[in-house]
Amino acid sequence: MKNDIDTLLPIRSRSGWRFALALFGALFALLVLTRPYFFGDVVEYTLETVALADHGSPDIRLSDIARAHQVAPQVSGVFQLLETDMRAGKQDVYAAFVRGKGGDVYSVHFFGYPALAVLPYKLFELLGVPPFKAFQVVNYAAVFVLGLALLRFFGSGRRAALGLLLFLLCGGALYLNWTSPECVSAACLLAGLLFYLSGAPLAAGLLAGLAGQQNPTIVFFFGFAPLLKLYLDWRPGVGLAANLKAQLTRANVLGLAVGVVLFSLPLLFNLYEFGVPNIIARKFSDPGLISATRLVSFFFDLNQGMVLILPGVLAALALWGWKHEGTSKRALGLFALCLLFVLALIFPAMAVLNWNSGAQGVMRYGFWAAMPLLLVLLLRLRASTRWPAGLLLGLLLAQGAATLHAASYSYVEFSPLARFALAHANRWYHPEPEIFAERMARNDDYIEPHKIYVSAEWHKALVNPGGAHVDELLCGAGKVLAPDTRMVESTRDWYYIDGAIACRPDPNRTERYGSAQFESGNGIALAEGWSQVEHNGGAWDGVWSVGPRSKLVIAAPSGFRAATLSLQGMYFEGNHRTRVRVNGTDLGWLSLDRLPHFALPANSAGKELVIELAHEAPHSPGSGDTRALAFFLRSAELREGR
């Protein structure tokens, strides 16, 4: 074989059956010795499997929940939440489920993965084996198919075994026993690439279509796999048309078409039942969350970034010597294509609401999206007649260490590496805000702008001036942050304060009104367009606006010349801004939930303030509540000189 990245043809192995038999035996032994790990989207997939096994349809029924209580008591509490909502006849049931057009309840996740688990589930029920080991069977089957793809790719059982070991050390071992489809998506994506590049497009299309059913951005396989093969098969001197024609074979087109059809099944089901191509994207994503901060976090975060699980792979690609100039250039081009593939896989994923989602070390998206980069190393290994022993040993040691590190902590605590960075390089490490807030508090919760997140251990704080009364919360009443406080901007108006928090007396007088003053009328009057004052704790102490207009009247405190006003609160869905008039002066449309303070008209200093609010889109929340809501007011604050 040439020491080059050359046209890929299948390499037949005389001992292939021995490799397949040994791999089957090893996986069977693992299946017997290990237990399923109930994590990830376990509630949805377990209920879907029970439903498909018991009545052959994916709609969730109360009888399915009763059965799931018996066979998966580990998550019984969450089953109960859904059961309570269903018995009450609620339209909006527990968050991970949704009603279809006929009123039946479905998981937001497509049922392709559970459908694969139905047969082993029913078999294990008959044999008295824990039935949800069926998910392990599906995961292990995907790994077995990947082993066959590697055998075809390398033509050697030993090399295929090493390739499979690399897959396991690049996240496969971390997700192998999960009751979620991450291992299937990663193994099928990589196997699909290997099959397509080595001339088995039908197998490739089937695997890619299956992988994309649960993780839809894998649809980019159907563009990048042909592009990668075109690049690897490129024949200089014959022109673009001839090279393209060589790729447009009947087998390639058929394989890709079959894969696209398989991938499209969830889209068609979602359109039929929910009226949208992807109900998860509708309910649990926000394109406004896509940012450079999340992109950097995806690759380099020290808690769940992709780099955590690829250190040896990336180092091997960088350090492996290149003897021929042409080889080096082609390899760089291949790496660039695969990196572009990774970016395509992850870009839509950056819109998910729950960035610090349940993970084992590297985030779930990062695991399967890393497969194109592992492919680059596998191609490099295939093109080499001799594999350098020292480099391979270093590669396996680095990947093994990365796997042990990733397995050593929970997704609601900082990784050992992140803790080291916070302790020794605090000013250089600023995780995506959700990661810092949730891991510091050791819970999986929503990050809220009205809160501050302070770590006394590392002298680091995360604040959002648009939603939190920062100075008072950090320094106490009558004090503000010192002017030399080191602040670093993050994303979505969050910023970090690095170092010990230094405060000073507030040089400007502040008058603040909260729910107690709203209710008593002490200094502030809810003149019109407001509901009853609510005391629900924390962010939900305040009052809702009602109708298209609301009015506040703030008395002029003695000797106080207000320069700025802040109206702290949050909007009801569909509302993002408010038209504000103060003493007859129109201040325009303002996003009150994102604006710390806004200047008052010059002629208002020392006078009573009449504040008129015109709301953008007030409407009823439904469920018997007829109020037309728009803005929830938590507090109002006047300041001098700011």
UniProtKB/TrEMBL annotation:
Positions of transmembrane segments: 20-38, 134-154, 161-178, 184-208, 252-272, 306-322, 334-356, 362-379, 391-412
Keywords for this protein: Membrane, Transmembrane, Transmembrane helix
Source species, domain of life: Bacteria
Keyword Membrane: yes
Keyword Transmembrane: yes
Protein name (record): Glycosyltransferase RgtA/B/C/D-like domain-containing protein
High-level lineage: Bacteria, Pseudomonadati, Pseudomonadota, Betaproteobacteria, Burkholderiales
